[in-house]
Amino acid sequence: MHRVDVVGNSLGVRRELIEGIKSLLGWRREFTKRRPRLAGRLLGVAEKLTGSKPPVSSGCTTAAQTFGQQTTADPLKLDG
């Protein structure tokens, strides 16, 4: 009888786990739909904080454009 309870509980746990996974998948889809809107809102906040649109060069990446930054590497100076 104890074994029957364990099997019954295992099936219940499995069912709850499956429902939870389905819920997480739905949440992930919803988040990916909202991601472009969120990036646009962050850019708007950056514009408000700086007072204007940040300058962007043609060689800048999309991620850097979103956050209003241009990343460059300074060459090393060797004192020979």
TrEMBL record:
<protein>
    <recommendedName>
        <fullName>TFIIS N-terminal domain-containing protein</fullName>
    </recommendedName>
</protein>
<feature type="compositionally biased region" description="Low complexity">
    <location>
        <begin position="61"/>
        <end position="73"/>
    </location>
</feature>
<feature type="region of interest" description="Disordered">
    <location>
        <begin position="53"/>
        <end position="80"/>
    </location>
</feature>
